[in-house]
Amino acid sequence: MDAVANLEPSKNGSKVLTGSIEQKFVFRNVMSDQLAGWLEHSCFRDPVFHDGPVSSIYFDTLDMALLDEKLNGDFQKIKIRLRWYVDLETCSPEHQVPCFVEAKSKIGILRAKDRGEIVLAAKTLKENPFSDERILTAPFEARNWTQRRLPHLFPMMVISYRRRRFVDQRSGSRISLDTDIICRKSNPQFFASSVPFQLAAGVLEIKGEHEAWISSLDPVAHLLKKAAFSKYSQCCEYLLAI
Predict the structure, then answer these.
(1) Which of 16, 121, 210, 218 could form a disulfide with 10 if both were Cys (CB 3.0 to 4.6 A apart)?
(2) CB atoms within 10 A of CB 197
(3) C-alpha to C-alpha distance for 91 and 116, rounded to whole angstroms
(4) Sign of the CA dihedral with 135 first, then 194, 54, and 112 last
(5) Backbone angles phi, psi at 37, to 5 degrees
(6) N- to C-terminal Cα distance for the chain?
(7) What is the pLDDT of residues 189-214, one digit of tens each?
(8) Residue 116 in contact with residue 14, Cβ under 8 Å?
């Protein structure tokens, strides 16, 4: 369980999260349709962003210090990524894609998130995610948002998934269902294989004001297991094991 918060403007114009509770539950990806069907029945669809693709380039240090923070369960952690919300396969090479540089920090159960926007061509994101100069320098902006001193960061991998968003009718908690999590590419300077692969697990996230279990999920509770889950660390562990 992690404390996060509603989006509020920060001094630099980005957004900061300051205080709700986030819980994560993993499930077998083959159960995605069953879970989605129940959420459609028992919850409201998010009125703005209900269903769509999410893709991110994750950054790390030369010795993968950010991965180690996650795997070791460190009290203080940070995540740097470049995120976009379109399917590149449906875009022309010249299509200009809004992307968001994000720094997501965690100290104990407290979380903070800053983001800034850049625009990149679909061809750049698809063909040059580990060599384009604008992508390579994207973390410099994110580093300015944190009080930590971070060494040079490198783009490590591209991870995509489908996200469906709902709102629980009784509690008002927000529910995200992330399925079909695919590592599309990995940086050949750090990983021996860059063949795309899909994780066997999906993740359901609940964000709200209280830690209490949402009773509307009782009929599908047997499909869910509460756990700390990181898409980046799961993909890294898979790649480093082969």
Answers:
(1) 16
(2) 16
(3) 22
(4) negative
(5) -60, -40
(6) 31
(7) 999 887 899 999 999 999 887 677 88
(8) yes
| C-alpha–C-alpha distance, residues 198 and 179, integer Å | 10
**Per-residue tokens: 234:** 């799961």
Which amino acid is present at 220? V
Q: 207-210 — which CB contacts under 8 Å span 24+ positions?
A: 207/4, 207/20, 207/21, 207/22, 207/23, 207/173, 207/174, 207/175, 207/176, 208/20, 208/21, 208/168, 208/171, 208/172, 208/173, 208/174, 209/20, 209/21, 209/172, 209/173, 210/21, 210/171, 210/173
Could you tell me if 184 and 159 are in contact, meaning their C-beta atoms sit under 8 angstroms apart? yes
Which residues sit opposite 208 in a β-bridge? 21
Contact 120, 96 (CB under 8 A): yes
Sequence letter at residue 120:
L
Q: pLDDT by residue (tens digit) across 133-184?
A: 999 999 887 666 655 567 789 999 999 999 999 999 988 999 999 999 999 9
- 71: which 2 tokens? 């795997």
Strand-pairing partners, residue 79, are: 104
44 bridge partner residues: 167
| Residue recorded with tokens 């070791």 | 72
Q: Three-class SS of residue 161?
A: strand
d(CA 207, CA 134): 33
- As a whole number of angstroms, the distance between CA 121 and CA 99 comes to 10
What angle, 0 to 180 degrees and rounded to 10, lies between the N-to-C axes of helices 65-72 and 231-241? 110
Q: Which amino acid is at 84?
A: W
